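Exercise: predict the fold of this chain.
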Amino acid sequence: MEKALRRYSPFFIIPTLAAFIIGFIVPFVQGLYLSFCQFTTVDNAKFVGISNYVNALSDESFRSAFGFTVKYAVAAILLINVIAFCLALLLTRELKGTNIFRTVFFMPNLIGGIVLGYIWQILINCVLSLVGQPLLALNSKAGYWGLIILMCWQQIGYMMIIYIAGLQNIPGELIESAQIDGATPWQTLIKVKLPMVMSSITICIFLTLTNSFKLFDQNLALTAGNPNHTTELLALNIYQTFYARAGMQWKGLGQAKAVIFCILVIAISMIQLKATRSREVQQ
């Protein structure tokens, strides 16, 4: 029986492998080729070399979107992870109603990004109108903080669950030994808990980093890049280049931006994974 399973096991891999090749590999290779072309459809492509990449890198709106994305990502990553970890510390104590609080904090993650964007657009515009400030369509500062508040509200609960799992996985003997040795709660947190949950920190930073850079639907619904593209993240800039303008040159330019964006996200993610994994403690 075991020999038969080993013999026929490759056949069970074929459906998933075929789906991966058809759904990911083929479109990726085709998209990479089209980034060197001017085209209106896949069958109507004219090879133009690296001119699309030259135009993409010299596009002021693309550089502005990159700067705004970095500025947004740094703030969002820090706030989401710090608040999520603090909540995890509170909810791993023996307090009444912790399960209810965990559910309440996690629920926003279940709501779609477009819906969240429009809900928070209404809420923020109401607040801005009450305090006599310009609405989101004319207020880049409010748009920036609106995106951060929206993403914190949506993702903190999910990251909190990961941190709770990491904290609950810490052997109780380590905490007891630290307390016996006279360690303060702060010393226990820094010297014991943080090193032991470093794998959870790696996962959460990776998720918040990638989510921040590839954020699209919330950005589209909340600000749509207004005013004058000052709150436009990279994904929305690529979308606007590819779909909002007509002509072969814009399709090729949008595709080149997408490839640059893909390489950028992969590179940053790999650097982050290497940096945080080197600090993980083997349990």
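Check your answer against the key: The beta strands are 37-41, 44-47.
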